[in-house]
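#structure-requests
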Amino acid sequence: MTEDHGVVGSIPTRPTLSYIFNFENIYKIKTTLHIMVKKKSVNKELPGTKEGLGISGFILGILSLVWAGSIFIGVPLAITGFILCRFQQKKSPMRLAKIGTILNIIGFVLGIIIFVLLIFLSPLIQGNLPLA
């Protein structure tokens, strides 16, 4: 049985063992396979993965505002969100990361202010200091 490979009367030949075990041919096969694998494994990012840090930082900014009264939750959220937003801005700037940076700064400052106010106002609230 013959198959048509563009040349009339051609028979497809398979490589023989002497061809396969020839060192020059092994190198050619190896480099050919390496080039084929290299072409297939081009670093392509999945769609929508470029803005993941910015979205995460934005969400952490919102949460830092919600948890601003707790310095143990709100401030670490604000710091983490700020870092994520800054990484996103350096990688590929986006509007959500910029808004997230602003929210994280506000959440951090608000958390520190509430914490300081609670420290200074807690004796007044407990009734230990006179209002004078």
